[in-house]
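In the design runs reported in the main text, the only information available to the sequence generator was the tokenized backbone. The following block is the verbatim input for one such run; it is reproduced so that readers can re-run the procedure and compare outputs position by position.
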């Protein structure tokens, strides 16, 4: 593995960073909101699934009236 000069390394990093297509502020906000919506939907789904399974187990074991 060839040793690299730290200055050359930083120059290469800057060069590669300039090639990245960065999202706009609007894209970042829209994506963040979509993630939060999906998290809430997943939380509600798993809460309801847990409640249904809890009721089912209680019913099968004869604990639920």
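Verbatim output:
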């Amino acid at each position: 593995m060839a040793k690299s000069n730290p200055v050359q390394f930083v120059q290469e990093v800057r060069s590669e960073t300039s090639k990245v297509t960065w999202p706009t502020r609007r894209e970042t906000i829209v994506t963040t909101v979509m993630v939060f919506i999906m998290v809430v939907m997943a939380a509600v789904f798993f809460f309801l699934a847990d409640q249904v399974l809890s009721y089912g187990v209680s019913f099968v074991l004869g604990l639920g009236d």
